[in-house]
Design a protein that fits this description.
The structure is a homodimer.
Chain A (H helix, E strand, L loop, with lengths): L5 H15 L8 H8 L3 H13 L3 E4 L5 E4 L8 H9 L23 H16 L3 H5 L8 H11 L1
The structure holds a DNA duplex.
Chain lengths: 152, 152
DNA sequence: GAAATCCCGACAGAAACGGTCGTATACTAA
DNA sequence: TTAGTATACGACCGTTTCTGTCGGGATTTC
């Protein structure tokens, strides 16, 4: 149904939360999980993933936890989603992975691939910072316009 | 992973196929299925769905089959996807259906809802006709730009 | 050393997805 | 009227994916 997984949602929420608390050194997974009523162990795994992908830095031990690896402005929603859900493609059969073997007739793919890029572009233009200040992230409208023009 | 279901893919392929054969009165589900190597019974169900949603017209009996209910230019990819996969939302918890009951803290939703609208807008701007002539559907670039400007 | 915390693999329950089957119904043509 | 073709529709099942849990291990701080 073309929707994000809960994990991706949780991940975005968590990063947003971290972005909103820049003063603190590090926040534990449990802390964030409690703040949103998210299963703690699940969120923990997600944050570990994001750490492995270089979006977060982690500290073990007491008063340990996670912090953003970069400025919230420099982390895009796309990166988060990509890190958690893996590369996404609108089309079920993508040339990347062998799939459309039997039906080379999938001529829809090419136009839809452009849609895919457009969506990716939009997500890339949205930073965690944009989510934190939950103002409309309209700032990047111009860039996005250019992107649409290019890809569609 | 933010991808279309195979059903939606099949549906788009089928409509594209119908759009490419405007001369014929009606094409049977089996005919289309064979053309693409799609499971016939599955495609049949999909086409029935699209019929019920008003995107196709059906005729039973010999030489029966399906035809586009409207001009290929007047049917958007969005409609097809929506008819098959139901309303899609980027966010797992949408205000539409009761979901985010326990966590009213889902402040990500608002910005992402805009992304959602943007995607919907892009899909709405692509018609079956665009898929059929598998040229880049760049014709609508201007409209789409306006849309992005509006919703993002 | 104890407590807090991250790390990570395995696994189980649930839901979604893809696909099949059987049957009823409608239409066409001979 | 009858036979054949096609849609309509519900039930069902196997597979995969998703969500969430459990348990044990490693690391840091106090």
């Amino acid at each position: 149904m073309l929707k994000l997984s809960k994990k991706a949602d949780y991940g975005l929420m968590a990063l947003k939360y971290l972005a909103e608390h820049p003063e603190t050194v590090a926040l534990s997974a449990k802390e964030v999980a409690d703040a949103y009523g998210i299963p703690a162990q699940l969120l923990a795994k997600i944050l570990q993933l994001l750490t492995k992908q270089g979006l977060l830095r982690s500290h073990a031990g007491m008063n340990g936890g996670y912090e953003l690896a970069r400025d919230a402005r420099e982390i895009s929603a796309y990166e988060v989603i990509h890190a958690i859900d893996g590369p996404f493609f609108i089309t079920s059969c993508t040339k990347g992975t062998k799939s459309c073997d039997l039906t080379p007739s999938c001529t829809i793919k090419e136009p839809l691939a452009r849609v895919n890029e457009t969506i990716a572009g939009v997500l890339k233009s949205i930073s965690i910072q944009d989510l934190a200040e939950h103002e409309h992230p309209a700032a990047r409208a111009t860039e996005t316009q250019g992107l649409v023009e290019l890809t569609l």
